[in-house]
Amino acid sequence: MRVIFIFLFLLGWGTSSFAQAKRIEYESDRTIKNEEKYPGAFILSKVTNQVHFTHQGIEIWCDQAIHYAEENFFKAYGNVRMEQGDTVTMTSQYAEYNGTTKFAFASGNVNMRNPQTSLQTDTLFFDRTKQQAYYRSGGVVRDTASVLRSRIGRYYLEDEKYSFASNVVITNPDYVLESAQLDFYSESGHAYMYGPSTITSEASVIYCERGFYDTRGDTGYFVKNSRIDYENRILEGDSLYFNRNTNFASATNNIKVTDTINKSIIKGHYAEVFREKDSVFITKKALAITLQEKDSVYIHSDTLMVTGKPDQRVIRGYYDVRLFKSNMSGKSDSIHVRESTGLTQMIGNPVIWSENNQLTGDTIHLLNNVETEQLDSLKVYDNAFMIQKDSVSGYNQLKGKEMYGKFTENQLTQVDLVKNTETIYYMRNDNKDLIGINRTVSSSIKVLLKDQKVEDVYYLNQVDGVLYPEQDLPENERKLKGLEWRGEERLNSKEDLFKGEPPYQLVKIQGIPLPEEEEEFFEERGESEELLLNEKSRLKPDDLKNRPQDTLPLPEMRKAKDSLIPVQKNTGATNPALKKPLRKTASDSILKERSTPAKAKKD
Question: The whole model's pTM is what?
Fold first, then answer.
């Protein structure tokens, strides 16, 4: 029996000590009791030193307090300061604390600080068990670089993360960020945006429905309906990367760059934009569209570059260039378009098809009237050739060193060939019966066309020609030297711009995952459970419940599915989504001097 008694005594002593360890301890210059006004409580007051409470790693100072020792609860008044270790300090005019539930409430000019940020609000709830602080009546967070405002906010002390919702605004000297919902990591300054979000600065407006922004490094990554509006350009794509320091942006998959001044559009699947240099680089199914009132011009090549200020725009295309408009198409190795003058230069094995005419040479220049937006003239330099397929057999051929053409209402109406000109022409009567084959050389030739067909040919100076009966001109004499009919390459529609090219497989975009679904801040409590604060609290039990109007919109967001590869968030100083090497593209030789974080990953 003695052993059992000793064991029970020790057990009771241990339980009592454990309970005592949970009790709030205090120091006070003045302690009085007023059972009539505050039954069961001590009134603690400052004389020289503030009232000081301690409880399991937290310390609270105040000028006056009402302490309910048996209920392990107190109310603190005047110059309240609450510290948890060396990481969090909170000041306010009033506070309450329940030592059993480890739950605190503060009001009146509340200011909570950690090493990187400070939070100001009028009312704050603090759950020490969850290590979370929460406000729902508006708050302001000050970071080293920015000021963040929202109606609802939740701070996770262990992750040093804020979750903001409802009218979230970040104000920085260089921009203003607005979002429906935002997670902010105070240690790194990283912000994750969810729902409709904009970043507005003097030079640009960024929009996305999911995005990342480094508020200290001024770089961002945006997905889901993302776009950047510059003064005279709009950049859209499945994913966008942005660097404010270098005025650089890149885009991946389903890209569209709209020139709002010059009425042109560029599409592709990888693009880079340098705002300060006013230049755009685009590849992967690159397509430029110059919008005209009646007939737009389409240019496709492996790589497109657009440079220059709005009034001096230049479009350059490289490798396998293809051009199409309703009454004309062409191909070349490269192309150079100066929009201010309307000059288009096709270089490297160029060819143009205009109705049933094929024009080739070493270089072809097309001149567009910038006011009427119609073709004005063309020039072919060196080895100029104009070929028509005869209605029955053979080819009508005109050859010279240079060729000059005139257009009327976008139709080729006159062609002049100069220097060492030669022709082979199939002469037919009205019934299209062959009269003979005319072979002529002269110094120059003038050709008049009607409805894109040769109507008259004039041979000028030093003319030497013969009309041969068909049987008298051998087959090998019916082609001028250098003749190359390329009709099988002709583009007959916009779809032919990509004819013969393998289908492009879009790269997988690294996504920004939605935030984890967190439990509600206020947990439902049963009748037998301890109140979060106390029945003597200023707050009513209903004040410590979750409200529908304060629920974050995550359930609605999760209904919208996407194909993004989720990337684990990084709460530290760097983000892995922004540390990937630049994805190899056909542009590597141009870009090897640059180092830009790409946002694309191979399948």
Answer: 0.79
